[in-house]
Amino acid sequence: MTTTPDLALPGVALIVCGEHPAGRDSATSGMDGLLAHSVLPSVDGTTELHYAQWGRDTVEPAYPDLPYRMYRRHAGGHAVGPPGVVLAKSVRTDGVEQARRLAAAQLEVIMTERPRGLLSSNFHIATDGSTLLQYAEWLTEAALAAFLDSRTGAPSPAVRDMMRGKQVRVRTFGPGRTLVPPPASDPR
């Protein structure tokens, strides 16, 4: 079964997310505090997005990616169904406050335009404030392409101004697999 992360998973304290060459090992056994680890293949098949959800504020050294906290989530619109594609956009920021302002500006565009086929848009801020990650779930690749090709897909002037001169990375991923580690054995 192909899946994407459960973005409403209870008990998540920290999310560790990063892109790696396709085929990276994603062992989950023995990872105390790991709730789920999702691996999504890029649409072009060259990389994978690793999205690990942790129930504590520290992570195992085997997870070298940037740690994030979920900042804001906009679920819904009028699309219903499982995600067919995920757009992951990361923007380098000059701290938590700038990341929050950029997330708010992007969320305002989404809520105003209500793009067809958007299932959810989830904003994560790196714990060091260096990066804003937007993880957007779309019903289909066609819906995402239509939004990006439309005039409504262009960034608003406020978003464009805040992103000027920033390092931006945008990639698309398909559904993959979610690994849930077995529960820790009871030592009693």
TrEMBL record:
The organism's place on the tree of life at top rank: Bacteria
Gene3D superfamilies associated with the record: 3.30.70.100
Protein name: Antibiotic biosynthesis monooxygenase
Organism of this sequence: Pseudonocardia parietis
Source species taxonomy: Bacteria, Bacillati, Actinomycetota, Actinomycetes, Pseudonocardiales
